[in-house]
């Protein structure tokens, strides 16, 4: 295998999706700047262009609201035909944005970019630090319940149609949704995408939040959908740990961040589903676990939670598929190997889980996961996601975050860590 050639291809993917100061996830399907996609892009750029890496993060934070929230999409330039575009969100600000957030991994990736070149990155880290703190403070003040991170829309999780949300979504009233034209199914086989009913509920939740004036307290009071996402809790905990490291290095106060970490560590305990023996999301309207073992359930090591009770599940899942950690337990009756977040394997999730395993001493498992991902991408390309069974590529092609995790973690020439 010519890995030098694959490294060059990965850079070409990054360059093809580069729009100057930000990247798109992939051409056509996702024509704007997405929050956690851009954080991964910055990590990828840091392997060969620190200046461009910092530009990615700084451009993302141009969309930050006065509340501290960093939206999941920033609409820098109009891309006609995309749904839901800025005309659907109707957010009165420039640049236009969506009204919800996305997994808060920016602090983790900012630290990685900084560590790649501290001399160049110092001033950039200083300038970004306050914005990162404001975003984390927004999460802690508006979305943390019993130490767990709540989402108000499935899109916020980054795992749009994951089974974690199925029960909570049944309470969403779709009678006022009206007609709309999706664009995703013109690019991708509709059988691999969320259903029409899923989208009706997604749009209804946007309308509900609009009617609430995007006021977090009103949304929390009125919306039937409020789920503590196990993945979000783990990712925010990890990001707070990285933010604490940055604060200490730059001689900023650490008490507030240490408090956040303590709160989230307590919340992790509330995510433990004792009956099923794994970390799980929680429907905050009912208090019930979602009974879903997903790839997000295995982010505990990434979050710094050295809890090995899930190793039996991890070993079983790795043995049942060929290419890493599928987005849903293959033993779950809802598993579909090519249905977006209901079965496929995602390279960037493999990377986060693998790095967490390595950092907590599970080096053999971590290397197995890295090698599986290396083989997956080298044999099947830089796709959005893949079948965990046979590696069949799916979703968007020439995908930014798949190229990024290749350059930073999966390639034999990568460091394989943050």
Secondary-structure blueprint:
Elements: H1 3-16, E1 33-34, H2 35-45, H3 50-60, E2 73-75, H4 86-89, E3 96-97, H5 106-116, H6 118-142, E4 144-145, E5 148-151, H7 166-169, H8 184-187, H9 196-211, H10 216-222, E6 227-228, H11 230-249, H12 255-270, E7 272-273, E8 278-279, E9 282-283, E10 288-289, H13 311-320, H14 347-359, H15 363-380, E11 385-386, E12 393-394, H16 400-410
Antiparallel strand pairs: 1-2, 2-3, 4-5, 5-6, 6-9, 7-8, 9-10, 11-12
Helix pairs in contact: 1-16, 2-3, 2-5, 2-16, 3-5, 3-6, 5-6, 5-11, 6-11, 11-12, 14-15, 15-16
Task: Give the total of domains.
Answer: 1
Counted by DSSP, the helix tally is: 16
Helical amount among residues, as a percent range?
40-55%
Number of strand elements: 12
What kind of sheet is the major sheet? 5 strands, antiparallel
Q: What structural class do you assign from the helix and strand content?
A: alpha+beta
What is the rounded distance between the termini? 25 Å
The level-1 CATH class: Mainly Alpha
Strand order of the largest sheet: 4-5-6-9-10
Write down the overall mean pLDDT.
Answer: 96
**Unreliable parts:** none
The geometry reads as globular
Instruction: Describe the oligomeric state of these chains in a short phrase.
Output: single chain
Order of SSEs, N→C? HEHHEHEHHEEHHHHEHHEEEEHHHEEH
């Amino acid at each position: 295998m010519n890995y030098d050639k694959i490294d060059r291809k990965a850079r070409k993917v990054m360059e093809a999706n580069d729009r100057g100061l930000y990247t798109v996830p992939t051409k056509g399907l996702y024509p704007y700047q997405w929050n956690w996609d851009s954080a991964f892009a910055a990590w990828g750029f840091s392997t060969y262009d620190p200046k461009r890496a910092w530009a990615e993060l700084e451009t993302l934070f141009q969309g930050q609201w006065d509340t501290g929230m960093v939206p999941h999409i920033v609409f820098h330039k109009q891309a006609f035909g995309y749904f839901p575009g800025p005309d659907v969100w109707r957010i009165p600000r420039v640049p236009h944005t969506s009204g919800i957030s996305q997994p808060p991994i920016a602090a983790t990736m900012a630290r990685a970019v900084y560590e790649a070149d501290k001399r160049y990155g110092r001033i950039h880290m200083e300038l970004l630090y306050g914005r990162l703190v404001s975003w984390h403070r927004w999460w802690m003040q508006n979305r943390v319940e019993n130490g767990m991170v709540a989402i108000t829309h499935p899109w916020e999780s980054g795992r749009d149609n994951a089974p974690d949300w199925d029960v909570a979504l049944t309470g969403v009233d779709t009678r006022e949704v009206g007609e709309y034209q999706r664009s995703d199914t013109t690019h991708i086989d509709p059988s691999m995408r969320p259903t029409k009913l899923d989208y009706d509920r997604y749009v209804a939740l946007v309308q509900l939040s609009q009617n609430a004036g995007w006021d977090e307290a009103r949304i929390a009071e009125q919306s039937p959908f409020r789920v503590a996402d196990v993945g979000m809790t783990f990712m925010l905990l990890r990001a707070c740990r990285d933010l604490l490291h940055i604060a200490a290095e730059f001689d900023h106060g650490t008490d507030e961040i240490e408090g956040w970490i303590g709160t989230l560590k307590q919340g992790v305990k509330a995510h433990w589903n004792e009956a099923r023996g794994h970390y799980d999301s929680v429907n905050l309207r009912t208090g019930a676990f979602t009974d879903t073992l997903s790839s997000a359930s295995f982010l505990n090591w990434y979050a710094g939670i050295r809890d090995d009770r899930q190793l039996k599940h991890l070993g079983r899942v790795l043995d049942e598929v060929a290419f890493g950690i599928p987005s849903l337990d293959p033993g779950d009756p809802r598993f579909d190997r090519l249905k977006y977040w209901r079965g496929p394997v995602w390279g960037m999730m493999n990377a986060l889980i693998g790095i967490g395993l390595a950092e907590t001493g599970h080096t053999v498992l971590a290397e197995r996961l890295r090698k599986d991902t290396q083989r997956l991408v080298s044999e099947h390309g830089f796709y959005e996601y893949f079948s965990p069974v046979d590696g069949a590529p799916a979703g968007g092609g020439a995908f930014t975050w798949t190229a990024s995790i290749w350059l930073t973690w999966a390639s034999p020439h990568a460091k394989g860590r943050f």
